[in-house]
Amino acid sequence: MSYIPYGRQTIDEDDIQAVVEVLQSDYLTTGPKVEEFEAAICQYTGAKYGVAVSSGTAALHSAMFALGIGPGDEVIVPPITFSATANCVLYQGGTPVFADIDPDTLLIDPVEVKNKITPQTKAIIAVDYAGQPCDYDQLREICDKHGLKLVADACHSLGAQYKGRKAGTLADLTVFSFHPVKHITTGEGGMVVTDDPETVDKIRMFRNHGITRDPALFKHPPIPSSSHTPPSWYYEMLELGYNYRITDIQCALGISQLKKLPQWIKKRQEIAKFYDDSFEGISSIEPLTVRDNIIHAYHLYVIKLQTKNRDTVFNELRNAGIGVNVHYIPVHLHPFYRKHLGTGYGLCPGAESVYKNILTLPVFQALLKNQQDLVIKTLKNIV
Ligand SMILES: *Cc1c(COP(=O)(O)O)cnc(C)c1O
């Protein structure tokens, strides 16, 4: 491999075999593999229930639906994230409100969150940026005090821990993504996990057009004025849902991938440690702060460039075949948000300032030692 990407999937022979078995079975979609994958993620994270959907974005949207977010409701989100974190609020007609990040960690700052709470605030979406969990004790306290729901966008932090508790158990609802750059992949895919059975029922319906086949939930008899038990073909659409279903093909891949997650996270942590050690004493390269009491899942390894211009370094590394990246353009600076929400510069000064200096270096389980050596040597030469 001459070009080194910032992240990529690992597909082994057993993954391929798992997918082939589904292709030869009766169910390509919504068969036994969906529930099996949901149970496996629950077992791994310690969450009670999981609902697998077609993407992390669909999972975020489902979470907003389950919380009943609608027009007039505000949901507090960080600006340094993938735009889907804020877009999901808009899908439901709600308003995302941006609370600034801590420039040391790029995690949402609980003090900024408090400042953004209004009588319209319904929920907070915390993003475990790069794979480091947010300060969930503080966020929980704020939520309890103001009657808000806490959602974790844990698309970066599958396998991470906060004070001995795993991502998936730290918020009311937690969202994962299984896009190929994330820790494990299903091609496209996502999941909501929660301990609340009602939330699960709502999302199961939402991912399938808002349809239920559970007679206990039916609003009307199947034929006017009939009182007998509904025939087995009968179903009702109770809500405006979507087709957010995930396939058995994808879930078989996910189940197979998940078995390897613990060793992959260890590998990511080793790569991060080697970066940390290599950059020690170099004042122009500042890795993000990692807090005590957490286990970092290292979806991303992000540095802040203190002296050299970020874009110069970016271009030189790219020219050397190293796939560095920038995570992320602050969401509130995107033209859509400026136009529709009137956001722009000055709204989140911490995010706007740190955004100029951040650079994501390659980290993925299959990154070779000599590739990482090349990244470090090239970067050191440039700065
Ligand atoms: C990847 C990601 C998403 C969206 O997940 P998809 O599966 O690509 O839809 C949402 N939020 C964050 C923070 C992400 O990294």
| End-to-end Cα distance | 25 Å
Strand-pairing-aware structural class: alpha/beta
Strand order of the largest sheet: 1-9-8-5-4-2-3
Count of DSSP-assigned helices: 13
Share in helix: 25-40%
The protein's oligomeric status is: single chain
The total of beta strands comes to 15
- Cα Rg: 22 Å
Q: Describe the biggest sheet?
A: 7 strands, mixed
Heterogens: pyridoxal-5'-phosphate
Proportion of beta-strand residues: 5-15%
Shape: globular
Query: How confident is the prediction overall: mean pLDDT?
Result: 96
In N-to-C order, the SSE pattern is HHEHEHEHEHEEEEEHEEHHEEEHHHEH
Which blocks of ≥5 consecutive residues have pLDDT under 50? none
What does this structure look like?
This protein has 383 residues and is of the alpha/beta class. Helix 1 runs antiparallel to helix 8, helix 2 runs parallel beside helix 8 and helix 3 packs across helix 4. The mean pLDDT is 96. The site of pyridoxal-5'-phosphate has 14 residues, from helix 3 and helix 4.
Question: How would you summarize the topology of this molecule?
Answer:
Layout: H1 13-23, H2 32-45, E1 49-53, H3 56-66, E2 74-77, H4 84-91, E3 95-98, H5 110-116, E4 121-127, H6 136-146, E5 149-153, E6 161-162, E7 165-166, E8 173-177, E9 190-194, H7 197-206, E10 211-212, E11 236-237, H8 248-258, H9 261-279, E12 285-287, E13 294-295, E14 301-305, H10 310-319, H11 335-341, H12 349-355, E15 358-361, H13 369-382
Parallel strand pairs: 2-3, 2-4, 4-5, 5-8
Antiparallel strand pairs: 1-9, 6-7, 6-13, 8-9, 10-11, 12-14, 14-15
Helix pairs in contact: 1-8, 2-8, 3-4, 3-7
Pyridoxal-5'-phosphate binds next to helix 3 and helix 4.
